[in-house]
Automatic annotation (TrEMBL):
GO terms for molecular function: FAD binding; oxidoreductase activity. Gene3D superfamilies: 3.30.465.10, 3.40.462.20, Uridine Diphospho-n-acetylenolpyruvylglucosamine Reductase, domain 2. Keywords: FAD, Flavoprotein, Glycoprotein, Signal. Residues 76-252 form the FAD-binding PCMH-type domain. It holds the Pfam family BBE. Belongs to the oxygen-dependent FAD-linked oxidoreductase family. This is Berberine bridge enzyme-like 22. Residues 1-22 form the signal peptide. It comes from Dioscorea cayennensis subsp. rotundata (White Guinea yam). Its cofactor is FAD.
Amino acid sequence: MAPNIAIPFILFIISIITLTTSSHSLLSNEAFLQCLHLKTKTSIKNLSKLLYFPNNNTYSSFLLFSMVNTRFNTISTPKPLLIFTPTQDSHIQGSIICAKNHNLSLRVRSGGHDYEGLSSRSQHPQPFIILDLINLNSVTVNVEHGTAWVQAGATLGEVYYQIANKSSVLGFPAGICPSVGVGGHISGGGMGTMVRKYGLAADNVLDVRLVDVHGRILDKDSMGEDLFWAVRGGGAASFGVVLSWKLRLVPVPQTVTVFAITKSAKEGAVELIDKWQYIAYKLPEELFIEAIVQTVTNGSSRRVEGLFNCLFLGNSSELVRVMGERFPELGVGMKDCKEMSWVQSVLFFGFSQSGLPADSLMDRKLQLQNKGLFKAKSDFVREPVPKDVLERLWSRFMEVERASMFMDPYGGKMAEISESETPFPHRKGTLYNIQYLVGWSDTSSKASKEHIRWIRSLYKQMGPYVSRNPRAAYLNFRDLDLGRNEWRNTSYFKAKVWGVKYFKNNFKRLAFVKGDVDPENFFRNEQSIPPLFL
Ligand SMILES: Cc1cc2nc3c(=O)[nH]c(=O)nc-3n(C[C@H](O)[C@H](O)[C@H](O)COP(=O)(O)OP(=O)(O)OC[C@H]3O[C@@H](n4cnc5c(N)ncnc54)[C@H](O)[C@@H]3O)c2cc1C
Ligand SMILES: *[C@@H]1O[C@H](CO)[C@@H](O)[C@H](O)[C@H]1NC(C)=O
Ligand SMILES: *[C@@H]1O[C@H](CO)[C@@H](O)[C@H](O)[C@H]1NC(C)=O
Ligand SMILES: *[C@@H]1O[C@H](CO)[C@@H](O)[C@H](O)[C@H]1NC(C)=O
Ligand SMILES: *[C@@H]1O[C@H](CO)[C@@H](O)[C@H](O)[C@H]1NC(C)=O
Ligand SMILES: *[C@@H]1O[C@H](CO)[C@@H](O)[C@H](O)[C@H]1NC(C)=O
Ligand SMILES: *[C@@H]1O[C@H](CO)[C@@H](O)[C@H](O)[C@H]1NC(C)=O
Ligand SMILES: *[C@@H]1O[C@H](CO)[C@@H](O)[C@H](O)[C@H]1NC(C)=O
């Protein structure tokens, strides 16, 4: 089932005879295609429709299409030898075998939201190909069992839409941005507005289908406990290619309530965020209030503001009552609250506005319109940040055109799951997660350097007030500043520096799983798990 958007890209047939690229890539391309033909029993003609070679003018636009961080859209960024958009499982099995046979490395791209662009580029000297799963995006909902099978190339928006299409009282607890792909997102954790009630997306995975380094399709039973554990938070890119997930859907009320309240510093934003730190993680699990500090620039005017975005799994009168009791300082009244269906709340958070038609969630092109250049970093907070430190953020944020600090409260279900149950260890004792993000529009390397310097300095400034030993980070907010693997020598001891930030004590178990399932380290990237052997 190809989404509309893919059609213009696949309406062409490539004749390998007319390829005019360098002889090296010509040979690799041709050899790879021949191998794929033999392994998948798909005709060259049919395969050609699914391939993008560098000499075709659709190659660059397709490469860019779901590369969400356009910081990596430069001439000097290493490009893939080809991009393959498989339409069936055997295409993925064949790609792995043929890539190994021809000494190519492989990157898998689902939604393309990786913060460091690791699904679209490779800094390693070995030539690489991209498997883009855009055509593998079916979502099959079973209302009776409260489950769904979703292919790895589906977006969160597609998953949410298809669930709501079948039931108004079922949902799924995953991320806020509808264009994120489930391939990367769920394998890296996945958190959103229902995290306090139902945990992470990865906590609600019942089964998975994955192609391993030998080209075999494994499921929960055949892959064994360790690998099934590893791909639910450890990042699947180190272990294989996820074909699909079986998800446990969760009950949501017919009517939920949202609000979005903005406060300037004069209106007490700093005091409110300070108070929020002490209560947000202790509120009823049905209540999720995200706090945001952000810089808004409009022409020559710039301001920094505090935002409180809320999803409540209940009605507005109940929400006003709870807020009056627990957080009266925010002054939430009926006029601030909007009741709606759960899927409408997804649109409200995803597009920062309400009233859009639900099928906007199916429109990748619409959702990918406002991508751009950015750099992000993350933290976990275990003790409230002092108020004067929060206050100082205002002057820091005035220094840049567009920046945000998203604070997502934990507690509830997150505090009930043990640190080792999945690779994602940031559970009990975590008050909230921070994501720092700075965006800019000037494509010069000078602008890029300046903004990256800014966010690094903000991160340094926050160091004393966030989690320590290790200073923890969230894999899905990938940050290569934390460290990266060397080409070929992916030393466990070197990787531990960043590995324990993402995974704490789970890093070692992940490395043993890696040693077991991919000892030669075929599934490798700048921040993949290094193999460790017993
Ligand atoms: C605008 C925006 C909003 C976001 N909002 C949230 C949010 O609300 N909550 C949250 O938790 N995160 C959020 N994220 C982060 C997001 O969860 C991660 O970037 C996630 O890894 C993206 O998955 P993807 O498939 O879109 O990305 P990709 O770039 O395609 O993949 C990310 C990584 O996973 C690998 N991968 C992808 N598919 C597969 C597969 N099928 N098998 C094996 N490996 C695979 C890739 O090779 C890459 O290493 C957001 C990101 C952006 C850009
Ligand atoms: C490039 O793509 C176009 C349409 O997308 C197709 O008509 C053309 O044959 C392709 N060229 C090559 C060399 O593959
Ligand atoms: C090629 O594609 C056509 C149309 O999609 C299909 O009918 C045919 O079976 C395919 N052949 C091979 C060998 O893949
Ligand atoms: C791949 O690399 C190995 C080891 O470096 C080499 O022996 C082999 O000939 C290469 N294969 C191809 C197809 O280039
Ligand atoms: C569900 O999807 C079908 C087919 O696309 C559509 O006709 C129908 O209106 C949708 N129903 C709801 C409730 O969204
Ligand atoms: C930006 O400023 C202009 C002129 O002052 C105003 O009309 C417009 O609504 C502002 N846009 C936003 C997004 O605030
Ligand atoms: C709102 O929810 C509360 C708690 O569930 C319930 O007691 C109350 O009757 C509901 N009010 C309305 C107007 O539905
Ligand atoms: C790999 O890196 C480790 C740690 O830096 C080092 O001890 C080891 O000698 C390196 N191995 C090779 C083959 O370069």
